[in-house]
């Protein structure tokens, strides 16, 4: 989508601190980190959020999460522990309408999340 900030990151129009990329997903550091490690993993194809996907995107959604887990290993936070967060719509705290998984780590997480 032409006015989507994450599409612009995915196509290189906007600079970001990219930590991983393949033909389907891209991962980059969050501009406003909420933990020592805070990385966003997005699909290159635009979906507003998980409600815009269906079962035909099962493999892609799975790839998004396994990529997040692999990046946790790459960042050295896998064994200590980390959190994956997917916000959806306004009450879910979603501010960017392009599906993304937050990878948060490097500190103790708390429950329930705010
Ligand atoms: P959410 O609130 O779940 O939609 O998360 C959106 C995230 O995108 C927030 O954590 C923002 O800090 C982050 N963000 C917004 N713009 C950028 C950007 N240009 N580069 C990196 N992270 C961004």
Please explain how this structure is put together.
The chain is α+β, with helices and mostly antiparallel strands and 114 residues long. It has one domain (5-105): HIT family, subunit A (2-Layer Sandwich), CATH 3.30.428.10. It is 20% helix and 23% strand. Strands 1-2-3-5-4 form a 5-stranded antiparallel sheet, with helices on one face. The longest helix has 17 residues, at 58-74. The N and C termini lie far apart (30 Å). The mean pLDDT is 97. The structure holds adenosine monophosphate. The site of adenosine monophosphate has 13 residues, from loops.
Describe the secondary structure blueprint for this structure.
Layout: H1 5-10, E1 18-21, E2 25-29, E3 37-43, H2 58-74, E4 82-85, E5 100-105
Antiparallel strand pairs: 1-2, 2-3, 3-5, 4-5
This protein binds adenosine monophosphate.
Residues 5, 14, 16, 28, 30-32, 40, 87, 93-96 line the site of adenosine monophosphate.
- Helix-strand makeup class: alpha+beta
What's the shape?
globular
Oligomeric status of the shown chains?
Answer: single chain
The CATH architecture classification is 2-Layer Sandwich
Compute the number of structural domains.
Answer: 1
Question: How would you sum up this structure in a few lines?
Answer:
The chain has 114 residues and is of the alpha+beta class. It contains two helices and five strands, in the order H-E-E-E-H-E-E. The longest helix has 17 residues, at 58-74.
């Amino acid at each position: 989508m032409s006015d989507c900030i994450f599409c612009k990151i995915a196509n290189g129009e906007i600079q970001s601190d990219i930590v991983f990329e393949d033909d389907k997903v891209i991962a980059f550091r969050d501009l406003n980190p909420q933990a020592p490690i805070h990385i966003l993993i997005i699909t290159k194809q635009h979906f507003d959020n998980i409600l815009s996907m269906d079962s035909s995107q099962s493999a892609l959604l799975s790839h998004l999460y396994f990529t997040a887990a692999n990046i946790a290993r790459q960042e050295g936070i896998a064994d200590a522990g980390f959190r994956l967060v997917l916000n959806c719509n306004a009450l879910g705290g979603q501010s960017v309408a392009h599906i993304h998984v937050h990878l948060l780590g490097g500190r103790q997480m708390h429950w329930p999340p705010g």
